[in-house]
């Protein structure tokens, strides 16, 4: 079984032969599930998810809760939450201006909605939505 080091380091004889280098494999913990997730993200899935979230909120001037975004975009909550944090400027993994914010009322309190389990959920909005 290859180690992470083996996958990122070309064999000494291949140092100057670009076609002999192994393909880049994103960091993962070695399990099949982790490897599949890493490959999925490196294929542009994170970008597609960010675009889907941004476009959905752009068209929702009243905003949406995380559960509403998950249901509308089909992005699972485990993938949705990090993308939302990136788009809100709360993670350094995404370079760009925040495009999503918590919706605030006139007194600068977060706006919430009650969802299925009768709990309050924050409403998120696109910062430039009309």
General description of the model:
There is one protein chain. The chain has 130 residues and is mostly helical. The protein has one domain (4-126): Arc Repressor Mutant, subunit A (Orthogonal Bundle). Helix content is 39%, strand content 9%. It has helices at 4-8, 32-58, 66-73, 77-87, and strands at 100-102, 112-114, 120-122, 124-126. The strands form 2 sheets. Strands 1-4 form a two-stranded antiparallel ribbon. The protein has a two-stranded antiparallel ribbon with strand order 2-3. The longest helix has 27 residues, at 32-58. The radius of gyration is 20 Å and the shape is globular.
Look up the CATH topology.
Answer: Arc Repressor Mutant, subunit A
Examine the secondary-structure arrangement and name the CATH architecture.
Orthogonal Bundle
> Can you tell me the residue ranges where pLDDT is under 50 for at least 5 consecutive residues?
1-24
**Widest β-sheet, arrangement of strands:** 1-4
Our Rg estimate from Cα atoms comes to: 20 Å
The amount of helix comes to 25-40%
Morphology call: globular
β-strand amount: 5-15%
> What structural class do helix, strand and pairing data support?
mainly alpha
Distance between the termini: 53 Å
Write the H/E string, N to C: HHHHEEEE
The overall pLDDT, averaged over residues, is 78
């Amino acid at each position: 079984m290859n180690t992470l080091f083996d996958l990122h380091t070309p064999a000494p004889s291949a140092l100057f032969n670009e076609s002999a280098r192994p393909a880049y494999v994103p960091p993962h913990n070695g399990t099949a599930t982790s490897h599949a997730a890493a490959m999925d993200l490196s294929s542009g899935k994170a970008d597609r998810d960010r675009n889907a979230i941004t476009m959905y909120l752009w068209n929702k001037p009243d905003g949406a809760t995380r559960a509403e975004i998950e249901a509308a975009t089909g992005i699972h909550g485990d993938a949705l939450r990090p993308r939302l944090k990136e788009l809100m400027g709360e993670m350094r993994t995404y370079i760009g201006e925040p495009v999503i914010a918590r919706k605030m009322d006139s007194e600068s309190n977060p706006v919430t909605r009650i969802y299925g389990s009768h709990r309050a959920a924050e409403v998120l909005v696109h910062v430039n939505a009309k």
